[in-house]
């Protein structure tokens, strides 16, 4: 044990590092030399794996060599050249400082002790040797580079001299030319051989000598003084003229210097040809004069600045626009005259455009004019001016006065945001104001109300009294609305007879009720439209932010839903929005979506209800009735889907499809001998279909496609089909009548029930509404009405059909009253196509039996 301690002391005293690892590369021993230079302690490495003690060694050549030593018994030497400083060892006085990391030479070999194999690592500090080696290499490289540099400099200097744009001539102390470059040859026309026989006096222009002898004498005096006193010339460049070989005068600028070689002084002249420069100066002067002339007469303000933006020149227009004086020039930058609020931002954008080398174009407001006390708006344009080295030397700019354009633009914007007729805000202003009101209420946690209004009866005023009268009504309504609310409430005309009101200053919902009642009372008062007085009323829908909704779209939707509810329930009234309205609207939208699918998937079926002759009992007509085979709700009647079809604007497509199917069935029935010769199928047409501009052409296209007999089709219309546009209805009916189509007037007795239509329109059949038939047994007046309709209609040459016949008593009365046709559940219910054919067979047999019995 004592021997081991002595051995450890010896190893610890070595001036190198020693490390012993076992076969698994666990640290067995590290000497003191390593501990000091790695700044670690024995307890950090004892019995630790090599990579735990020195994580930096992972995936290094050092680690691989240690593995090779214990596994393959290979010895490795890691030199500093290929494996620099693998271990984190430092100068003991600067541990951790990478500048003092030791350069290492490492020997790694295996050592067998007993039955065990160990890895022995010996590390030597070769930092001093490496530093010495580096310095020697640097000295050698520096010497070699200096030698090469001198040769290169001489070569480059020769090339530079020979290829420089300026002419270079080197004179001896006698004035003879010792050296000339290529530019000198080009400038003066002499070859280098010829220059050897040329003297300085030969180059000086004779006229120059005569006319400006002082220049020549001064040059010669300076040259002689420099040669005599062995000193460098301190002569500024001299502008003069020199003569070329062919006698041409060349304007030049000459720079003088001296050099001394082999105790001999030479005079070096650099001669710059000023021909192009003089021409450029001439062109620049002419351009400058033109610029100032144009600037004087230009209608825009023109100015010039230095590189910092200080104004150096400005024309009179610029001074007038900015309100500056001539004395302000050279003192103000162009952006000093911008209004304070936006000056810094404009200046920053200008500096950014400078750095990006882009032109600057900006609209801004100038300081308030001292004389007029008005603000001036301008468009400023600035472009940089550059010298030959692409450096900015200043800016040229313009100020265009756009004050009047701004005022015009503001007027246009006012027109864009306000209704020209009433002076109220328009739809665009309303939407932007609604957005602002929502943001304001959100910040203040307040609430406001949106009222949607439209006028009841306005269309009839336009139709009866003309659009001028309608305009007067709108103007008067706008005045009355304005008088009903506070000035802070915004009233907007959304379009036509629709208005919106934003009410932001109320305390309780009852305040909105008071406002609504005040509006209703005000609007219903008569309005003078010239020679007449008219009256309108209004309906109001109200929604409240944030209780009902928080988005502008939903608020508008809610107000419209409340308005529609008010119009449906009670005209000239108001209603507050409630969620059930939304549910109803969503249900309506769902139904509209479903009817689209139904049309695409052919879910509509046609049922046929027989119509018989009252006298003979024969089937002479059948009414085509559409049913919707709904996948969830079963068979639906037209009252549940016609309105959605009209809202979806597919009623026309739907109607044409029904015409095709009825036409095909009509063709099939034409071959059945059991039906009377004048048998027809009647098709119901809604007013929307009938009043469609190209209805006749589309009906005709269906006939050509299916090839049905026109005479077998009867079109049922209601009075609504021609009340709104009798002229169009008359045209359609006459065109279709010319093809052979007959017409029946359905639901007669309701609505206007005007007999005039029977005299003016080609109607062959009148169908008495089922409401009269159903109640005539209990109501003698209705019985009298039915008799009157039958008698009056037949006198006008029309046949009469009774709808809704459901009892024998009704049937018997109608037969005795002379009614021509009977239709109702007593006769037969509406039935599918196949059942209708069976009904025809049964009915025919019955009629034949009755006839035979008679």
Question: What does it look like?
Answer:
The chain has 854 residues and is α+β, with helices and mostly antiparallel strands. The protein has 5 domains: 124 residues, 2-Layer Sandwich (Beta-Lactamase); 110 residues, PAS domain (Beta-Lactamase), CATH 3.30.450.20; 110 residues, 2-Layer Sandwich (Beta-Lactamase), CATH 3.30.450; 154 residues, Alpha-Beta Plaits, CATH 3.30.70; 251 residues, TIM Barrel (Alpha-Beta Barrel), CATH 3.20.20.450. It is 46% helix and 23% strand. It has 32 helices and 31 strands. The strands form 6 sheets. It has an 8-stranded mixed β-barrel, surrounded by 4 helices. A hairpin with a 5-residue loop joins strand 1 and strand 2. It is elongated, with a radius of gyration of 55 Å. The chain starts with a helix and ends with a helix.
- Could you state the CATH homologous superfamily of the largest domain? EAL domain
CATH topology of the largest domain: TIM Barrel
Number of strands: 31
Largest β-sheet summary: 8 strands, mixed, barrel
N→C terminal distance: 150 Å
Task: Indicate the percent of residues in helices.
Answer: 40-55%
Q: Strand order, main sheet: write it out.
A: 23-24-26-27-28-29-30-31
The poorly predicted ranges are: none
Q: Write down the domain tally.
A: 5
């Amino acid at each position: 044990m004592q021997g081991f301690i002595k051995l450890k002391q010896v190893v610890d005293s070595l001036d190198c590092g020693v490390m012993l690892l076992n076969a698994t590369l666990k640290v067995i021993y590290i000497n003191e030399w390593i501990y000091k230079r790695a700044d670690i302690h024995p307890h950090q490495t004892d019995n630790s794996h090599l990579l735990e003690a020195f994580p930096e060694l992972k995936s290094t050549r050092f680690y691989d060599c240690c593995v090779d030593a214990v596994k393959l018994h290979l010895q490795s030497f890691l030199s500093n050249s290929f494996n620099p400083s693998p271990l984190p060892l430092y100068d003991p006085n600067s541990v951790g400082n990478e500048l003092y990391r030791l350069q290492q030479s490492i020997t790694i070999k295996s050592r067998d002790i007993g039955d065990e194999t160990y890895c022995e690592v010996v590390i030597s500090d070769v930092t001093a040797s490496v530093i010495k080696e580096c310095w020697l290499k640097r000295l050698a490289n520096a010497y070699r580079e200096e030698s090469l540099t001198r040769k290169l400099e001489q070569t480059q200097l020769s090339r530079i001299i020979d290829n420089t744009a300026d002419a270079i001539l080197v004179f001896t102390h006698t004035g003879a030319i010792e050296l000339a470059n290529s530019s000198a040859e080009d400038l003066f026309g002499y070859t280098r051989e010829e220059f050897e026989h040329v003297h300085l006096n030969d180059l000086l222009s004779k006229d120059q000598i005569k006319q400006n002898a002082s220049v020549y004498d001064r040059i010669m005096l300076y040259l002689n003084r420099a040669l005599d006193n062995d000193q460098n010339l301190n002569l500024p460049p001299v502008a003069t003229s020199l003569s070329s070989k062919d006698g041409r005068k060349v304007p030049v600028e000459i720079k003088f210097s001296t050099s001394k070689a082999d105790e001999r002084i030479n005079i070096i002249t650099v001669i710059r040809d000023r021909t192009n420069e003089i021409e450029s100066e001439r062109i620049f002067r002419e351009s400058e004069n033109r610029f100032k002339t144009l600037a004087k007469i230009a209608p825009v303000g023109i100015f010039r600045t230095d590189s910092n933006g200080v104004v150096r020149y400005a024309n009179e227009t610029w001074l007038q626009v900015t309100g500056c004086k001539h004395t302000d020039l050279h003192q103000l930058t162009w952006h000093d005259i911008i209004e304070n609020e936006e000056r810094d931002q404009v200046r920053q954008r200008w500096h950014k455009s400078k750095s990006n080398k882009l032109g600057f174009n900006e609209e801004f407001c100038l300081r308030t004019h001292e004389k007029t006390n008005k603000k001036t708006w301008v468009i400023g344009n600035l472009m940089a001016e550059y010298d030959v080295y692409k450096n900015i030397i200043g800016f040229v700019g313009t100020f265009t006065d756009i004050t009047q354009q701004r005022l015009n633009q503001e007027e246009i914007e006012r027109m864009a945001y306000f209704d020209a007729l009433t002076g109220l805000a328009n739809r665009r202003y309303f939407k932007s104001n609604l957005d602002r009101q929502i943001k304001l209420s959100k910040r203040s946690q307040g609430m406001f109300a949106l009222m949607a209004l439209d006028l009841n009866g306005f269309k009839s005023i336009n139709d009866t009294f003309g659009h001028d009268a309608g305009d007067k009504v709108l103007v008067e309504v706008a005045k009355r609305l304005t008088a009903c609310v506070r000035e802070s409430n915004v009233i907007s005309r959304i379009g036509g007879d629709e208005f919106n009101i934003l009410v932001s200053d109320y305390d309780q919902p009852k305040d909105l009720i008071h406002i609504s009642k005040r509006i209703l009372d005000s609007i219903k008062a008569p309005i003078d439209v010239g020679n007449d007085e008219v009256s309108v009323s209004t309906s109001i829908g109200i929604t409240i932010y944030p209780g009902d909704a928080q988005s502008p779209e939903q608020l508008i939707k809610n107000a419209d839903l409340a308005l529609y509810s008010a119009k449906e329930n009670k005209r000239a009234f108001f209603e507050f929005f409630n969620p059930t309205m939304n549910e109803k609207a969503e249900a309506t939208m769902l139904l509209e979506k479903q009817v689209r699918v139904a049309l695409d998937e052919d879910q509509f079926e046609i049922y046929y209800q027989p119509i018989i002759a009252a006298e003979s009992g024969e089937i002479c007509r059948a009414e085509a009735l559409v049913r919707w085979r709904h996948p969830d709700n079963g068979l639906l009647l037209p009252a549940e889907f016609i309105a959605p079809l009209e809202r979806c604007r597919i009623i026309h497509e739907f109607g044409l499809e029904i015409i095709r199917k009825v036409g095909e069935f009509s063709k099939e029935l034409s071959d059945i001998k059991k039906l009377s010769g004048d048998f027809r199928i009647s098709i119901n047409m809604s007013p929307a279909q009938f009043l469609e501009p190209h209805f006749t052409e589309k009906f005709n296209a269906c006939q050509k496609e299916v090839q049905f007999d026109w005479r077998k089709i009867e079109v049922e219309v209601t009075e609504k089909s021609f009340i709104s546009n009798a002229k169009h209805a008359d045209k359609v009916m006459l065109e279709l009548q010319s093809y052979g189509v007959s017409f029946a007037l359905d639901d007669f007795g309701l609505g206007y029930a005007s007999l005039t239509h029977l005299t003016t329109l080609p109607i062959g059949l009148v169908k008495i509404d089922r409401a009269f038939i159903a109640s005539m047994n209990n109501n003698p007046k209705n019985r009298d009405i039915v008799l009157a309709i039958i008698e009056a209609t037949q006198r006008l040459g029309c046949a009469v059909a009774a709808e809704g016949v459901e009892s024998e008593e009704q049937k018997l009365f109608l037969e005795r009253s002379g009614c021509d046709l009977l239709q109702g559940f007593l006769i037969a219910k509406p039935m599918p196509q196949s059942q209708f054919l069976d009904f025809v067979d049964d009915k025919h047999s019955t009629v034949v039996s009755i006839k035979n019995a008679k």
